[in-house]
Design brief:
It contains six helices and nine strands; from the N terminus they run βαβαβαβββαβαβαβ. The mean pLDDT is 98. α2 links the parallel β2 and β3. The protein is an alpha/beta fold. Strands 3-2-1-4-7-8-9 form a seven-stranded parallel beta sheet, sandwiched between helices. The protein has a two-stranded antiparallel ribbon with strand order 5-6. It starts with a strand and ends in an 8-residue tail after the last strand. The radius of gyration is 16 Å and the shape is globular. The chain has one domain: Rossmann fold (3-Layer(aba) Sandwich), CATH 3.40.50.720. Bound molecules: NADP nicotinamide-adenine-dinucleotide phosphate (NAP). NADP nicotinamide-adenine-dinucleotide phosphate binds next to α1.
């Protein structure tokens, strides 16, 4: 049994990861901004005999992250998945029109968010058996992605990739495996139906890749397929 903590769990890739881990018999700490509204997660929790519990966590707010840590306590976490993310829309993050408040928000949620979650839950990860931390990033954060980008989103993902490689170096001696991962282009509320793959396919690939990850992978930008992402 793997003990997994996931952020942004109420919908999209995060929900599907929770669903699949719970179905596989793992212990899931599903965190989301509004547990009272997380109807689908709460239904899984109710039928899970305690294997999945739902906890409030707003990753953009240090107090909320610390409150969640206090609720979960010292319990060991084998796999920590930073999944929560936001996309403020392309119109307000292009060269011709930049919403700087949205940029700050995206950086706070997707770059500082994973950092503060890792900082807060590192004792749990160090107590875990697998010591794996995966941060769901994006191909748009890679220099190799030669397309027009939404600057706020892409810079937040580039920043989080660099934060993860930095943390991978810092925690190498403690045996922690830290990997930023592109989950595919996924049909969720964020990407819409034009995307390539379903949340089920993405989560299946992410879980398989996490299960196969070894210490040799720490600090590598990976894809949900298990391949290395060019960066
Ligand atoms: N879909 C894609 O094609 C794609 C591609 C590359 C990377 N990604 C990344 O994959 C991850 C999951 O995205 P998705 O496609 O599943 O998008 P989604 O359906 O829009 O889900 C995003 C999730 O993040 C949560 N969230 C947003 N802000 C948060 C905050 N401040 N604190 C805690 N949770 C927060 C949302 O919670 P609420 O339910 O409360 O709003 C929601 O559960 C994101 O990091 C995204 O950047 C997605």
């Amino acid at each position: 049994m793997t003990r997994v903590l996931i952020t942004g769990s109420a919908r999209g890739i995060g929900f599907e990861l929770c669903r699949q881990y719970a179905e596989a018999g793992d212990r899931v700490y599903a965190t989301c901004r509004s547990p009272a509204k997380a109807t689908r997660l709460n239904a899984i929790a109710a039928a899970s005999q305690g294997r999945l519990t739902v906890h409030a966590m707003e990753v953009g707010n240090s107090t909320s992250v610390k409150t969640c840590r206090a609720e979960i306590g010292d319990t060991p976490i084998d796999v920590l998945i930073n999944n929560a993310g936001v996309w403020g829309g392309l119109d307000t993050q292009v060269f011709a029109n930049m919403d700087y408040d949205n940029w700050a928000h995206e950086l706070n949620v997707m770059a500082m968010g994973p950092f503060r979650v890792i900082q807060t839950f590192m004792p749990n990860v160090l107590a875990g058996r697998q010591k794996k931390i995966v941060t769901i990033s994006s191909q748009t954060g890679a220099h190799a992605y030669d397309h027009v980008i939404g600057y706020s989103y892409a810079s937040a993902k580039a920043a989080v990739n660099r934060l993860m490689t930095g943390l991978a170096t810092e925690f190498r001696e403690q045996g922690v495996i830290i990997v930023p991962m592109h989950p595919g282009w996924v049909k969720t509320e964020m990407a819409g139906d034009v995307a390539d793959i379903s949340p089920e396919e993405s989560a299946t690939g992410v879980r398989k890749t996490i299960a196969a990850m070894t210490f040799a992978d720490t600090g590598t930008f990976m894809k949900w397929t298990g391949d290395v992402h060019p960066w």
